[in-house]
């Protein structure tokens, strides 16, 4: 099965011309290519002037170690691809590569940063290639749609991931093509071995991405075809039932229309009678409301006069007498010219000059009523220094069976009393 699914470099989608031109221009501009000549396959090297980063050799070793580990953990896959052996060759080659070899390889693979993720992605895409359950998605597979067919789940792989994987593989192929051919040189070149050991995993990854995309697309197409066929079968089966139902519905509608017309005629007659009765009731109601309104207005006028008189009588009139040098303040309270018994709500005092600052003395004074309409407020000490008083009193009485409380207030300067 895997033999049919795997694709060779010759059948992979060609790299876009712009990207190929960019890669070649980058290699020529930085001097990274082994320039070919016409003599006996010899390839005099043009070495890059810029060294590879110090960590690049360690990154290569880690990459090849992952390839070996994957091959050892998957004997069947390793038998088909030979990756474990290729990874071991890469491990040996990276130890033999010179600084210029490292720089040459680095300036190409730097164009495809995803090369370091190829082992992990290859492991995931190999499961997809074999048509088994996908499991955890690799970095380039976004969690999303899945398609299940015959108990197998396929994960959606977008076209962008296919293009990116193919582009990376093409750039890795270029890294191989610009290195010396071991067969022509007569001895293995560590640079070429290292490049091949990177190119092969990226090539297999691109194949896996393409196949994963194809498997999901084929599964989706099969399901859509099955769904369409099922819908078509159901429509064919239900057509007769639908036509019969439409015919029955049409007959029922004809009967219903006849009944509705009869009901509308009856309803119209009933409505005409009801409208006549309503108009008569409205006329009688209007006459009754006019009579009631005249009565209500008359009563409101009488109540308003009573309220005006009552409000005048319910106003508490206050006078204050403060004997000089004493501790008492006498408060006279009357309503409508008659003395009433009021209680103290609050008393605040202040001393001149302006601005005044009031002190609440309510909790410090005592009160008594020596006679009706007089409230004696006694301070704990002399109030000779207090020149301004703010006094609030209240009186509670029963009106029409309800308890009603009203208040009176006065602001007085004892120097003016």
Structure notes:
α3 packs across α4 (75-81). This protein has two domains: 2-233, no CATH class; 314-416, Immunoglobulin-like, CATH 2.60.40. Strands 3, 4, 5, 8 and 9 form a five-stranded antiparallel beta sheet that branches. It has ten helices and eleven strands. With 417 residues, it is α+β, with helices and mostly antiparallel strands. It starts with a helix and ends with a strand. 54% of the residues lie in helices and 17% in strands. It has helices spanning 2-5, 17-30, 56-73, 75-81, 83-96, 99-109, 118-129, 159-177, 182-185, 190-313; strands spanning 146-149, 152-155, 316-321, 328-335, 338-339, 343-350, 359-360, 366-371, 374-378, 388-399, 402-413. The radius of gyration is 53 Å and the shape is elongated.
């Amino acid at each position: 099965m895997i033999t049919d699914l795997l694709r060779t470099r010759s059948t992979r989608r060609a790299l876009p011309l712009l990207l190929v031109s960019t890669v070649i221009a980058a290699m020529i501009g930085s001097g990274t290519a082994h320039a070919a000549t016409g003599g006996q396959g010899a390839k005099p090297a043009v070495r890059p002037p810029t060294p590879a980063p110090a960590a690049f050799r360690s990154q290569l070793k880690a990459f090849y170690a992952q390839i070996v580990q994957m091959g050892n953990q998957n004997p069947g896959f390793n038998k088909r691809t030979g990756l474990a052996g290729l990874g071991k060759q890469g491990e040996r080659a990276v130890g033999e590569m010179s600084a210029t070899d490292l720089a040459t390889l680095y300036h190409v693979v730097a164009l495809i940063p995803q090369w370091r993720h190829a082992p992990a992605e290859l492991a995931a895409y190999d499961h997809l290639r074999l048509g088994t359950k996908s499991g955890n998605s690799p970095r380039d597979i976004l969690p999303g749609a899945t398609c299940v067919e015959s108990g197998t789940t396929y994960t959606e792989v977008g076209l962008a991931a296919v293009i990116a994987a193919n582009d990376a593989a093409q750039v890795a192929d270029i890294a191989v093509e610009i290195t010396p051919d071991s067969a022509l040189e007569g001895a293995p070149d560590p640079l070429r071995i290292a490049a091949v050991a990177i190119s092969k995993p990226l090539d297999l990854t691109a194949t896996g991405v393409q196949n994963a995309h194809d498997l999901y697309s084929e599964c989706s197409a099969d399901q859509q075809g099955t769904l369409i066929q099922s819908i078509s079968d159901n429509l064919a089966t239900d057509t007769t039932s639908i036509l019969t139902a439409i015919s029955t519905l049409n007959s029922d509608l004809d009967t219903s229309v006849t009944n509705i017309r009869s009901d509308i005629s009856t309803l119209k007659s009933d409505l005409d009678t009801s409208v006549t009765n309503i108009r008569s009731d409205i006329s009688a109601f209007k006459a009754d409301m006019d009579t009631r309104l005249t009565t209500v207005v008359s009563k409101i006028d009488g109540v308003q006069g009573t309220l005006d008189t009552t409000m005048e009588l319910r106003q508490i009139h206050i006078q204050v007498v403060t004997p000089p040098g004493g501790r008492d303040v006498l408060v006279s309270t009357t309503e409508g010219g008659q003395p009433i018994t009021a209680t103290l709500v609050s008393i605040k005092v202040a001393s001149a000059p302006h601005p005044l600052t009031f002190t609440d003395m309510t909790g410090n004074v005592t009160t008594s009523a020596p006679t009706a309409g007089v409230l004696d407020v006694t301070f704990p000490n002399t109030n000779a220094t207090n020149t301004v008083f703010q006094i609030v009193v209240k009186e509670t009485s029963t009106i029409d069976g309800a308890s009603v409380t009203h208040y009176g207030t006065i602001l007085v300067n004892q120097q003016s009393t």
